[in-house]
Amino acid sequence: MNTPRATRTAAQLRPDAARVVARLFLPGEEPHLAHSRAAEIVDRVMAIDEAQVELSVARLLETFASRHHNYEQLLTSHASIVASHVEDPDQLSPARTLLLGATFTAEYAVEGAAVCNPSAFLHPDQTSLGAGEVRVAISVRGIGEGHLSSIGFRSAIAGPGKQWRFAEPTYPISPGVVTSAPSHRDHLRAVLADHGDVDELAQNVVRLLPTRFEEADLDRVFSQVNPHLLSRPGATASAQLIRRLGASSYTVAFDAATLLEQRILMPSVAEESNGMEDARFTHFLSDDGTVQFRATYTAYDGYRIAPRVLTSPDLRVFRAHRLAGPAARNKGMALFPRLVGGRHLALCRSDGESTSVTSSGDGLLWTEPRLVQQPTATWETLQVGNCGPPIETAAGWLVLTHGVGAMRTYSIGAVLLDLDDPTVLLGRLTAPLLEPEPDEQDGYVPNVVYSCGGMVHDGVLWIPYGIGDSRIGVAHVALDAVLDALIPV
What we know:
Elements (H helix, E strand, L loop, with lengths): L6 E7 L6 E5 L13 H9 L3 H15 L6 H12 L11 H10 L1 E5 L4 E9 L11 E11 L3 E11 L5 E3 L10 E4 L2 E2 H11 L4 H9 L3 E2 L1 H10 L2 H4 L4 H12 L3 E4 L22 E10 L5 E10 L4 E8 L4 E6 L11 E2 L8 E5 L6 E6 L9 E4 L9 E4 L4 E3 L2 E10 L3 E9 L7 E4 L20 E2 L4 E3 L2 E8 L3 E8 H7 L1 E2 L1
Antiparallel strand pairs: 1-28, 2-3, 4-5, 5-6, 6-7, 8-11, 9-10, 11-15, 12-13, 13-14, 14-15, 16-17, 17-18, 18-19, 20-22, 21-22, 22-23, 23-24, 24-29, 25-27, 26-27, 27-28
């Protein structure tokens, strides 16, 4: 049977420049610069006449307070960071404190350049819907100034039938409150092994750490390490790496009053400093019936990538961890939505060009992957990979895939894996469901259609997809038509 072609809808998401966050701005400490100008700037703010300060603050509040959650609190926090340069703290009136904080604050448009690579999953709020409708949550990759990526959210209604409509945007957006989270000693050891950096200093530090540790435990352990280990060549770099990896777990909590589409996950630790890319969310059902939202994503620090995971019970509080093990060494991991054979499973592309399946006991440390799909078709001669978490059907695990062919053109296809043993490939499509049409060729990255996750509702397979890494479209195809078109392998 011929491969069915997915039908495009009129629904689209384009970059929204109004989605802004207010970030700390330290002039002179931008990338590749080293000289802070904070002291001189603080002196200028402190020299401004108080009446002028109050006028300036009134204008700031009128212009920016509605664009940010807790704007005055944020400015006060930023002022405290540079307040050490103020010679007489008594001169810091409430108004001058706000002006000082605003001087060291800048807005950042999280989608200033692009929005792409959506992942669709069941929204936790299914109230106020009509017959045949379902509310869908969509994670998106926003790209802003400096090619910095973040993870944002949208919502949509799918159904009845072949209808899809995105919800109107809600403002302002919020980056949430970030706090450090405990890490596990064995997990740190595995991550260090992935880096190839388990030297004697690392061995000693890991041995002295408690099973679950926090950043304060790292400080205590380093004070106990033999001084000779700290003075050896390379010890400084090794210590920095241990601290960076050991402190890479964190929690982000959002105000309960915010809607999902107002929440934005921004880089919060060193290995994410240049972006958080391509979240693949799944609605994870535990064996005891509890539901958790889980997503893999790729962190980038400007030099290396790091596969990481987000877990959340409600999409309001998120916990972020580094993944480790032989399978967690490339982009594009995607989690299965439930345990299989009592273990966590994930799709991965650890060799950079083929799809494999890996397993884990805890969802963090992943075993050696087992190959399930290699590039074979003309439209995937460069590489294949997943386009999001597997979708469970009666016939097997349906996996949306991406293939990269001539002219580095990305297309979307599908394969089917065995329900009980997903390392067994049951079938594949001989042609793409989606490939770039003429009006989809141009973009930030030309000739790309790419998804980080589709979903099924009432027999319709919905595929939100990135177009040219610039904007997002939505397509649909009958699930039965896809399953019928799969060729046994």
